[in-house]
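Fold description:
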Amino acid sequence: MSTRGFRLHLLTVSILFILLFLFFIFWTQRPAASTYEIKGYTLSALHKDIPVPANAKLIESKAYSDHPTLELSETYELKHIGGEQGLYPPVDYFQKLHDAGWVELKEERLGHMHILNKGDVRVAIEIRENTFQLFLLHSDEDVHQNRG
């Protein structure tokens, strides 16, 4: 083998080694994937027809006695449910809600807040990175009665 051929071979192997080394560094330094896992569903105490992930931890329940639109709420914790910064709503959870008869009113969506209807019941779901909050909203009829 000529000296020139040997140098070319050595250069090729060196470049491949450097590329492999850079790939290894990139691969090991990348952030861990932030994924959530839903392990079945249970029913919310907020409303008998709202499924919630069975492995979500209930961290707060509230009643709103004098709020014009909110009646009750529940806050759940489930790691990475909304993706990074809550920007990625859990598609499989919304599919489960849809399968249970809930219809999302996409035109009423405001950022992290999703509005859903089922019959005359209206709920809002706020999705964040590690939590989601369910709100039972007063019906339009309730709101009109309270206004006089």
